[in-house]
Predict the structure of Peroxisomal nicotinamide adenine dinucleotide carrier-like protein.
Amino acid sequence: MAGAGGGIVAQIITYPLQTVNTRQQTERVAKKEKDSIPSPSTRPAGSTLLHIFQVFKSEGLGGLYSGLKPSLLGTAASQAFKNKAEAIAVANKRKGKGDGSPGMLSWLIVAALAGSVNVLLTNPIWVLVTRMQTHTQAERKIVEAKKEALLKEASGNGLLHSSLSDQLVALDSIKPRPYGTFQAACEVYNESGIAGFWKGIIPTLIMVCNPSIQFMIYESLLKRLRTKRSAIKQGPTNIKAMEIFLVGAVAKLGATISTYPLLVVKSRLQAKQEIGGNISLRYSGTIDAIIKMIRYEGLSSFYKGMSTKIVQSVFAASVLFMVKEELVKTYTVLSNKSRKVI
């Protein structure tokens, strides 16, 4: 419960960053476009903060928090397995094995197994979250594709300027459709059937090593910190909230940098494939996505929005661990008081 609570708090605080990051990851810009002046819709924001303000200005707070409800469900579900490793470690200590804390190898194995089960069960949730986060972006791309087709048709058929102008104004007036969890689910099913809810499952399964690396680094650093604190026997032995924050940040930073390209591939597979309007930038599967990204956009496409992701994921992980540890301490204090009363 503490892990789920920490994850939910961290998700709410950092969700606007996650929304912006997903849009950055799914933005297609072909190599040939890089040497020309980008259009307003493809020109990258000067900074993540500016990008957030742009989304807020055009779509309001709802745009920044699109897909939050299913995301919170997925976050809570993703925290469900960690206590199992701790319970096994405590049981081993009672048998005289270990010091009561999971070792590096234990964390790696348990996190990998738990992560694989978690991915298979929760992938449909994250497909819907990605769709909801990128819905406005996809709708805008579709309108732009229609404009380009209209302009080409006008130049070829000699369409009257007034008629062309009216049609362009009509396209500009189109507002994004209402888009909630149900609408996203229907769209995914209509496009690809039941299998559509497991799009991006291959890179996501490979990315199981992300939480494994994260928890391995986190638990190792925390164990060293506790050992050092106990050895010097000066001051309180409890780990402070700020120390937890910093340890969590370092752990998530290492995990994020090593697995980010897979995250970009996953997001692109789960986003609406009509985005961009160019078949060379639309993907039928993981291998197809990797090949086309390298061929048409270059290796740099695998690291789009990485700075935003580092800020979001590191801050979210730090808050998660900090809140979790504080909730555990609070529960322990209340539990001890309750026992005394009894």
